[in-house]
Amino acid sequence: MEGDIAELGKYIGVGLTAIGMGGAAMGVGNVAGNFLSGALRNPSAAASQTATLFIGMAFAEALGIFSFLVALLLMFAV
Amino acid sequence: MATEAAHGAEEGSSLVFHPMDQFIVKPLFGGTEVHWYTITNVTLWMGITVLAILALMVLATSGAKRIPSRGQSIAEMAYGFVYKMIEDVTGKDAVKFFPYVFTLFMFIVFSNLLGLLPMSFTPTSHFAVTIVLALVVFLTVTIVGFALHGAQFLGLFWVSSAPAAVRPLLALIEVISYFVRPVSHSIRLAGNMMAGHAVIKVFAGFAAIAAVSPVAIIAIVGMYGLEILVGFIQAYVFTILTCVYLKDALHPAH
Description:
The complex is a heterodimer.
Chain A: H1 5-16, H2 18-41, H3 43-46, H4 50-77
Helix pairs in contact in A: 1-4, 2-4
Chain B: H1 2-10, H2 41-59, H3 70-89, H4 98-114, H5 127-149, H6 167-206, H7 213-250
């Protein structure tokens, strides 16, 4: 066992950023699920909305990527 | 960041190699210092990307026939795909931005997919590369918006359909979200590329351990397939967001 308490806190923080992944998962799943339920109700309108689907997914996913970024900053920059 | 990643590997982590080692920018012709004019592996792979695009778009379509060859049909599909995207999302009057948007799309998709070759390097996995792409989009949108609409472009921030009481608050939020655009635009692409490649390398590290190597190799194959999809979807998302932002510049009315 070596290292100090700051190192310990750093690694705990890096582990905690994995929670952000769960949030992104809920967001992307919500977008895809709602798209699918809407698309099954009105299949003829679905094709015109796939661009909106990907934009919504990208916005939801970006916040998960931000938590990954925080983990990288803690690991390599702090 | 990259040098510290190499340092972390020396400190005796349990993996054979560090998953972040693949993102180190190294000069190609000796030396260790990186200046703005140094030819690095990033320069090399950006060059390969541009040459690959040229090969597809110039060589494959040079002897264009009515019945297209494989290369010609891929080039035509890419052209039609981006053309339809900008026409649908931004509008017919935005077709004058097509060369710019098509260049962005081809550069990102080729660099993402070429980066999946073993031992290669992905320029788009670096924030320094993607932030430049995103800032150029941001400046284009701002300049075009003010050039076409003058002070009316500021109406983008004033949501006239909302109740009057909440409009100042909404304006504040809109201004913040406008200036965060290049940050999220660039970090989305670089973060996705970096995370995917790091995951593949982590599984590759596990493949060296005999007990779990069959599982790890299957996982690498699965992740690799997913990465091909992600590389394409991220290029698509970057391009379509460019189209959405250009729409704000051309039609700022809320």
